[in-house]
## 1
Amino acid sequence: MSAPNRLWRALAFIPNALYKGGGLGGTARRAVKILRQSGLRGVVRSVSVLLRNDGPPLMADASRPDRFQYREWVKRHDAPLAPAQRQALEAQAAGWPRQPGFVLVMALDGADAQQAERAVASVRDQVFAHWRLVLAAGPGTAQAVKALAGRLAASEPRIEFAEATLAQAFNAVDPGADGWLAACDARDALAADALWRVAEAAVARPEAALIYTDEDRIAADGQRSAPYFKPDWNLDLLRSQDFVSRFAFFAAPLLREVGRLDERFGDAARYDLVLRAAERLDAARIVHVPKALYHRHVASEETVHAMDPAEYAPEGGERALQAHLARGGIEATAERAGAGFRVRHALPAEPPLVSLFIPTRNGLKLVRQCIESILEKTLYPRYEIILIDNGSDDPEALRYFEEISARAGVRVLRDDSPFNYSALNNQAAAVAKGEVFGLINNDIEVISPDWLGEMVSIALQPGVGAVGARLWYPENTLQHAGVVLGYRGGVADHAHRRFGQGDAGYFGRAALLQGFSAVTAACLIVRRALYEQVGGLDEKHLKVAYNDVDFCLRLREAGYRNVWTPHAELYHHESATRPSDLSEAQIQRFLGEEGYMKQRWGELLFNDPAYNPNLSLAIEDFSYAWPPRAAKVAAP
């Protein structure tokens, strides 16, 4: 390339970098973050994206104010429907075996006339025509909005006007024997294909009783921002935030069973309704449509692009959550904490014995730090430590192992066979005395004294499989906040890696107790009965890599949900034990284990129900996917 061409490309790079990186400072911070996460190769990929004026799959950062990238993402991947696309969707719906009917109850309180007119217009513009709209004018509705609502109702037979609160109107309306009922806000708007997408889901999944969608923000000028691309049904996340009710459809038979909105919960009435529905439904009857079909109004011009997780913790939500726990006979307390709600589960009067497995080969400094931090800081009263010495030959390490084996509650097992992480843990499980097992890396260091009590209290809950902890690198950036499947085209990696302390992550998901498909075995708690039920770790196919992911997926396959808690905090000195270079044999072993995981779990690895197909698998910070993995609206 000639010097003038190189100069021209460099000059073209600068505005693209500033635009897509969020200014000079944002670009610099993003480049440093990519360097730490993905190395120099990741930075080179990012630069090539910017030189092409493409992407920005690696410069985008969905956890930060997104004035730049989401606007571009919408233009490319979620643009308004063209007339031909509308016609194609209408034709497709005409061939469905049934036509679901929807009733929307729209709260006018707090809306101005312009917002209300936009909201109603978005309903009238729906591709799917089987809807009714009830405009509910509560005490906070302006007179001009009431007058507008009356005119709109007079102009359209499918629109009704009611002088009632949202709850009163929602509770009075009849959706029909097989209809669907949803609540919305007159300050918000619907995507033109919103009801079509929900109807499609209802037809495809006749067992469905609750359907919810993704959402984003919409400004007065129509610009969209701050999308919340949600996971599929996630009970534990629901108990941490109301990520469902903003645009949720309830089947009429379900409402007859669980009731309607309870005004005693005020702003949390819809959250309470979702919690009551969750108590009656199994996961197969709750359907998520992974598309931003609901556009929430911008609360203030200062927060146009904000992603505030506190907005998903409505006032009174902890009372609704406490009532939910009581109805389920769950001994726990609900409280408001940080980015959402926190459920504190009670331990039994006599907590079960926990057996902690710590494999090591030498590593005296790390393993001593690990064991001493457990012994000195852990408040949980009943645990034993089983150290599995895998062929150590360091005299100082051996002296330490001999010393600690004399302590009460500590045992040392010797195993001189070639390193097989799965076999070492299975060997410890065979001789363990505890009702609960803990898999602990030798480079773990306790931070929060209640870490074990927190994890055990969750692991003892019905339906829970493995429980993972919040792990930090020594420099206090996140090492583990749950495992997401399919990252970088591989098997799995850690969510929100390298996020800082105090950063709640994508809509609070780096700081809220929630379900994940898998958690790391660097610090994992599971009931003994479940460990034995699924056969422990796979020591035949997965001697070193991915045995924890496979173990968690087998628990999930058996009907259990895996949970990550941010309230059990430990350091993971991972870089201290990870080799900087690998032999050819190690590389081949890793590739074989990766291949086995892909063969065993197939498409699940790229369709993680705890993630979202609109989010990137190229980097772990919940950036947007370019393009999304969700199916696009097909052109005719």
## 2
Amino acid sequence: MLAFLRKSVTSWVGILILGLALGALVFTLFQPTGPGGTAAGGGQLLATVGKEQITEQDYTRLLDRAVAREREANPRITNPDFIAAGGGELVLQQLIASKALASYGDANGLIVSRRMIDGEIASIPAMQLNGKFDEGTYRRLLAEQRLSEAELRESIRSDLLRRQLLLPVSLGQIVPRGHAEPFAELLLEVRKGRILPVPSAAMADPGKPTDAQLKAFHAENARAYTIPERRGFRFAELDMKGLAEKARPEAAAVRKYYDENPQEFGGLETRLVNQIILRDAEKARAFVAAVRGGTSFAAAAAKEGFSAEDIALGTRTQSGLADETTDTLAKAVFALQPGAVTDPVESRLGFHVAEVARVIPASPQAFETVSAAITKKLQDEALLDLVADTVASAEDRLTGGESLADVAKDLGIEIRESPPLTADGRQFDADYAVTAVAQPLLPAVFAADAAEGPQVTEIEGNRYVIFEVTDVLQPTLVPLDKIREDVALAWEIKARSDAARAEAERIAQALGKGEALDRLVAGRNLPAPQPLTVRRLELTQMAQRGQQVPPPVLQLLTTPKGQARVLPAPGGQGWFVVMVDSIEPGTLSEAPQLAEAVRQSMLRDTSDEMVETFVRAIEREAGVVRRPDQLKAVNRRLTGETIGETID
């Protein structure tokens, strides 16, 4: 649980240098962001960073995205699970650190030029077509996500500021070998011990609980018997198949595209071009003279400080080369024979000299061969526009006060109704029976303000749904009378577990005083203790491979020699008594190369710690004020911990 969040929030180098690079930035920006897609805050004020505010809306939006990412590895995780495991605190800390760093960069004159931002935008894969930045794709993505160009540019600017601040801090750390050697020896330590299971099932029958005991148990465990907030809603999904059919191009349009874009189908001659740009006209003329005098283009360029990669322009059509350079240069290049170079051609960048390395003659594909691919390309592009227009029109009409029924009728789509469900898709009947419902719309439903009325959202699979929240049922404690048998069973399980714990603690205390384990368990009807020998290094390697190390084995590493510790078994099945019989210290002679491996690991950790310390110092300078009570209230509402009236 929380694999993604713990890696990307607690590692400052990870989240604030690499994690906020453009790949992650696009994931964050190009996701459904709730009604209107704006970044404006709202709800409770959870923290302030100088003059900047972090609101409930900021927090819940990032929390939802973090849970969505975590759900890729753990599909069953819910918001309550995530928050209970500490995810909420980590999300808030990420927001605080991000705002503090951005503020510090601005205050200290760090500059991010428009050209730098342009370069980052052009490198975003989602905005590219055939490996190159595409203006149409860029504009369409912004429109689909209801994100302004200014908002995207500001997000990228903040990210580049953070990289300028933190990357230098993470470099240049030193860890001496002598500092790593004791830790390497610790990894080679060998421990021998025993693990004794104490099952709850082996304990005596606690008998039937009294009514007073059941009431007290029910009250003490109210959260376990509380139904979280539920929401009922109506929804209608856009007919993507119908829209796709409308977007299908006519045969004439397909043929027209083929005729007007011969460069895509081998219908134009192309040339493999090398190019150099020099600032001085005299140098450019001397360069041309050298090449025409027998010096290779690459060798002449190398004398000017240009590598082979610097001069390689690639394969271009005449029009494509004109778009990238100048029309004059393109005409000159396409008038040359292979191996020839142009005269210097001036532009605002300097003086261009180009070489034709190879001529690739036109070899057009037959229309019949590519017509299907053209049809799909045109249909896909038209569908994107049609969906965007349909969604925008629906949003405008809903904002103007029209009902879901009116819009759905005009679009010819069916309205369906969902019963009240929890955020993780559970439906409860009057007898507290639970039915699981797979409903991909639930995250949007629970992120919506019920008072806002119908709205449009995108769900998985590039589908769009118009929905409105019709009912909000607050968290509700189920009465004891409706679940008496379940509570009685839970009471019995708890009673047996308490008895097992008491027995395990009795044995552990006696073992710590030197008593023999065999005598302590005699006649107790307990399983036989399991002997165990472990080396720290082996367990570390298991964890690195993603293998889970059982908790009793981990406990063996932290228990002193001759002592015993107690820890719970999974699923409330009982308890373990873990005893350490002997400890054999490790020596580097067993694995002399281990010290260097440990030193490298510590070096990475040291860099992270330096960055984290730097961030903490910036937060203190900015003046961070957290509001833990407000955060607790928001988390209680998100997890259903707040208890309302009971069911009749």
